[in-house]
Each structure stands twice: as structure tokens, then as C-alpha cells.
Amino acid sequence: MAVGNVATFAVIVPNSSTARYINAYQIDGNSITPKWAGGAPIGGTSANTDMYTFSIFKTSATPTYNVFAQVSSFF
What is the C-alpha separation between 38 and 35, in angstroms, rounded? Predict the structure, then answer.
């Protein structure tokens, strides 16, 4: 990914009675901390579907990234 480029993707997590959620984030093998819309989620929603959306901005060749994320629950 070139400096200045943006990649956006979505991850759908269909939950059963046990809630599952994404809690670790890496780019190029390095841990990152996303900036969450509305605050970071603390867990999934059981018996529902959660959709995570991530927008990754590459800001330098070091590499450095800004990651903006949000999660929505569908009942």
C-alpha cells in the first residue's frame, strides 16, 4: 500500500448464543489500536450479527497507519 492510500473493508461476525468479537488488530505484523466511532466495543452481541468496518490510511513509509473503525449490531 502506497503512502496516502486508503483501504476500507468490512468483517461480518454472525453470533450464536455465545457472543464473539474482534479484539486484536495487526497490520504488517504490527499491533495497532483503531480509533473507534463512539468508543471501543467491549464485546459482541449474542444471537445477533455484528459488522465491523475498518478504514486504514497509510501515513508514512515507516510504515505508519491511522485506522478508523466502527461496529454495528443487526438484530
Answer: 9
Alpha-helical (H) ranges within 1-75 are none
pLDDT, tens only, 39-72 = 888 888 899 999 999 999 999 999 999 999 999 9
Q: Work out the number of other CB atoms within 10 angstroms of the CB of residue 53.
A: 14
Residues in the chain: 75
Q: Which three cell numbers stand for residue 57?
A: 490510511
The pTM for the full model equals 0.89
> Which parts of 26-74 fold into alpha helices (H)?
none
To the nearest 5 percent, what fractions of the chain are helix, strand and coil? 0, 50, 50
pLDDT of 74 reads: 93
Q: Is 69 helix (H, G, I), strand (E, B) or coil?
A: strand
